[in-house]
Amino acid sequence: MTSELTNQHEEPIFDVAQIAHVEILSPTPKETIAFYTKMLGMEVVEQVEHQTYLRAYEDNYKYSLIVTEAEEAGLGHVAWRTTSPQALQRRVKALEESGRGTGWANDEYGHGPAYQFTTPDGHKMEILWEVEYYDCHTDKRSKLLSRSQKRPANGVPVRRLDHINLMSSNPAADTDFLVKTLGFKVREQIVDNDYVVGTWNSVSNLVHEIAIMQEPTGVKGKLHHVCYWYGVPQNLYDAADLLKDHDYFIEIPPNKHGVSQAFCMYAYEPGGNRVELFGDAGYLILDPDWKTLTWQMEDVPGNGDAWIGAAFPDSFWTYGTPAPAAVPIKAVAE
Amino acid sequence: MTSELTNQHEEPIFDVAQIAHVEILSPTPKETIAFYTKMLGMEVVEQVEHQTYLRAYEDNYKYSLIVTEAEEAGLGHVAWRTTSPQALQRRVKALEESGRGTGWANDEYGHGPAYQFTTPDGHKMEILWEVEYYDCHTDKRSKLLSRSQKRPANGVPVRRLDHINLMSSNPAADTDFLVKTLGFKVREQIVDNDYVVGTWNSVSNLVHEIAIMQEPTGVKGKLHHVCYWYGVPQNLYDAADLLKDHDYFIEIPPNKHGVSQAFCMYAYEPGGNRVELFGDAGYLILDPDWKTLTWQMEDVPGNGDAWIGAAFPDSFWTYGTPAPAAVPIKAVAE
Amino acid sequence: MTSELTNQHEEPIFDVAQIAHVEILSPTPKETIAFYTKMLGMEVVEQVEHQTYLRAYEDNYKYSLIVTEAEEAGLGHVAWRTTSPQALQRRVKALEESGRGTGWANDEYGHGPAYQFTTPDGHKMEILWEVEYYDCHTDKRSKLLSRSQKRPANGVPVRRLDHINLMSSNPAADTDFLVKTLGFKVREQIVDNDYVVGTWNSVSNLVHEIAIMQEPTGVKGKLHHVCYWYGVPQNLYDAADLLKDHDYFIEIPPNKHGVSQAFCMYAYEPGGNRVELFGDAGYLILDPDWKTLTWQMEDVPGNGDAWIGAAFPDSFWTYGTPAPAAVPIKAVAE
Amino acid sequence: MTSELTNQHEEPIFDVAQIAHVEILSPTPKETIAFYTKMLGMEVVEQVEHQTYLRAYEDNYKYSLIVTEAEEAGLGHVAWRTTSPQALQRRVKALEESGRGTGWANDEYGHGPAYQFTTPDGHKMEILWEVEYYDCHTDKRSKLLSRSQKRPANGVPVRRLDHINLMSSNPAADTDFLVKTLGFKVREQIVDNDYVVGTWNSVSNLVHEIAIMQEPTGVKGKLHHVCYWYGVPQNLYDAADLLKDHDYFIEIPPNKHGVSQAFCMYAYEPGGNRVELFGDAGYLILDPDWKTLTWQMEDVPGNGDAWIGAAFPDSFWTYGTPAPAAVPIKAVAE
Question: Are B126 and B193 spatial neighbours (Cβ–Cβ below 8 Å)?
Answer without folding.
Answer: no
